[in-house]
Amino acid sequence: MTGLVVKGLVAGYGTDPVLRGLDLVVPEGALVAVLGPSGCGKTTLLRVVAGLHTPAAGRIELGGRDLAGIPPERRGIGIVPQEGALFPHLTVTRNVAFGLSRDERRNGRVGELLDLVGLADFGQRMPSELSGGQQQRVALARALAPKPGVILMDEPFSSLDAGLRDELRGDVRAALRATGATALLVTHDQEEALGVADLVAVLRDGAVAQLGTPQEIYTSPADLGVALFVGEAVTFPATATQGSVETPLGRFGVKGQGAGTVLIRPEQLRLGEGAEAAVVDVRFHGHGATVLLRLRDGTQVRSRVLGTHVKPGENTAVTVRGPVLFFPGNEL
Ligand SMILES: Nc1ncnc2c1ncn2[C@@H]1O[C@H](COP(=O)(O)OP(=O)(O)OP(=O)(O)O)[C@@H](O)[C@H]1O
């Protein structure tokens, strides 16, 4: 059965719409990340789905039910906002129990959910006695408690520091899986979208530019815009003739003909053999390094490597591993 279906959605503020005929399907039980730059309309999409903003056109269905005219509280939607927004005067238990009937409160659902989000012993605490990450866990438990048709999450990790964010992402994903919940997560963070979601919808110009698995979005982007948005890239203008292109890194087989752009991911550039290159700069990341290289023709490219075995000023060589992408017509 289909979870959430959005068809031809047009919505905005005033005359110029932010969403311009947006189509999106969130399959039941899936976590779909909506990824797009700041201001592209991600929050607007969530607000329309939640019933907090009226669209100019389009249709939204949840579990096959048309949501038009249904008020927010009767849509069967759970919301996890950017910063928990817990009721400050209620304990953790009472926050989670808030949307439940008396029977549901008695049948242990609250304890089950607190357990699921790793806060089994925190029921009697007040929100002010919790860390930011713990507050987000309570917000998720509260949203999941009434078994909504879909959970909407608006940048739920953005207020947390990097390490905590990573841990919470994994736990949120596990909690959603365990409950079989359908969820839509809004983020402008590429790593987050690719790392946590079953499917990623890249939003651009008020519509979905591509919907696919994280692997599809990263390795087979629909166009140059999506490719550049979802990760770092080394690009060259090039012309494809008879199925190949010539670049400062060598000749590669590609699909397509004519002038366009070649795109290679920095982790595809391996050091040690291949085209001559001088090491210009090395940026250490802990788990690896980004190495800025100057090729013989003066072009500079970035390589991402494991470990740091080269130093600025040294000479090395660089070769490309794996398929090279080519976008005909997309000249930079
Ligand atoms: N209440 C409002 N009145 C007028 N314009 C608005 C209002 N809310 C948002 N906008 C505008 O609509 C556009 C989309 O906003 P929205 O908040 O949906 O973007 P977003 O993708 O969620 O951005 P961010 O990642 O920064 O949260 C922006 O240009 C914003 O300035």
TrEMBL record:
It is an enzyme of class 7 (translocase). Signal peptide: none annotated. Its EC number is 7.6.2.9. CDD domains: ABC_Carb_Solutes_like. SUPFAM superfamilies: P-loop containing nucleoside triphosphate hydrolases (SSF52540). GO terms for molecular function: ABC-type ferric iron transporter activity; ABC-type quaternary ammonium compound transporting activity; ATP binding; ATP hydrolysis activity. Pfam families: ABC_tran (PF00005), TOBE_2 (PF08402). Keywords: ATP-binding, Cell inner membrane, Cell membrane, Ion transport, Iron, Iron transport, Membrane, Nucleotide-binding, Translocase, Transport. SMART domains: AAA. One of its GO terms (cellular component) is ATP-binding cassette (ABC) transporter complex. Residues 4-230 form the ABC transporter domain. Gene3D superfamilies: P-loop containing nucleotide triphosphate hydrolases. PANTHER family: PUTRESCINE TRANSPORT ATP-BINDING PROTEIN POTG (PTHR42781:SF5), SPERMIDINE/PUTRESCINE IMPORT ATP-BINDING PROTEIN POTA (PTHR42781). This is ABC-type quaternary amine transporter. It comes from Kibdelosporangium aridum.
